[in-house]
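tmp note - L-idonate 5-dehydrogenase
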Amino acid sequence: MKALRIHEAHDLRLQDVPEPKFAPDEVLVRLGAGGICGSDLHYFAHGGVGDFKLREPMTLGHEVAGEVVALGGEVTRVKVGDHVAVNPSRPCLHCDQCLSGHSNLCPNMRFFGSAARFPHVQGAFAELFVARQDQCEIVPPEMDYRVAACAEPLAVTLHAAAQAGPLLGMRVLIVGAGPIGVLLAASARLAGATEITVTDLQDAPLRVAVQMGATRTVNIRSEVLDEPFDVAFEASGSPAGLTSALGALRPGGRLVQVGMLPSGLTAAPLNPLISREITITGSFRFHREFGWAAELLASGRIDVTPILSASFPLSQAQAAFELAADRERAVKVSLVPDTLLMDGAGA
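out:
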């Protein structure tokens, strides 16, 4: 079977690999569609993301959905033929973090397509991949696989919204209009925020942010933020974005850091945390929010159609990654098995 593997920066290869074996509590999934994430782009462009560096070839991909094609003997949660959104997080389920409801912080986490561990955890941009049964959320058979694959980034933003505390009636700032930023707009709207301002350096993603729930957009190249916010989400992963978010909060405001900052030390004006009693917290991946995300997408309560920019077959992955990196032209680019794309792109 074919799998999309990164060997080093800019060295992306569609290669033949052995079909994976699965344990009694696991299922074999045929890929329906997978979204190219910012971390996939970082591995492609830089050979790593944050502190996680490539040390061996690795199959990319963690925003995925597909069809269950085989079951281990102990599987009861799904059946062959089910369409599933697949949670890329595979916590141990036994450590203190898992048992206390914080499985996203599991020190033994195995996350699809991640170089955080060595040997690396292989991802799911492959014709077939294996998942534990508890990673699978059944979705309606008529649901576009590309939409179902968005359960993962949507779950990231639902968790970030939960980290912020109550958002009902709040004025919210979102710094960065990438896929996570625009999905944060949808999550903040769902949580009851009355004003949702999204900032970016480019106009194209800001137009998508409006479609996803932003009540105002600001291109900070030419406009200035002129009002204090109750809550800010930093989704750009840049020190400049962090500085902007801190400066825009009212006294007593809250900042949630969602974007992964560059490796090493990050300079930021932290005195306002003291003089204005700003609260800052991190938000890392998700846990129970993945199931919520799949349900919200299946019910249509959150429509991610505006972020779906293009689909490419696995055999054209290089072109797909190049488009996904162009923020003026794309928000979310999907990879689809060649045969499935020819049959109608992921339904």
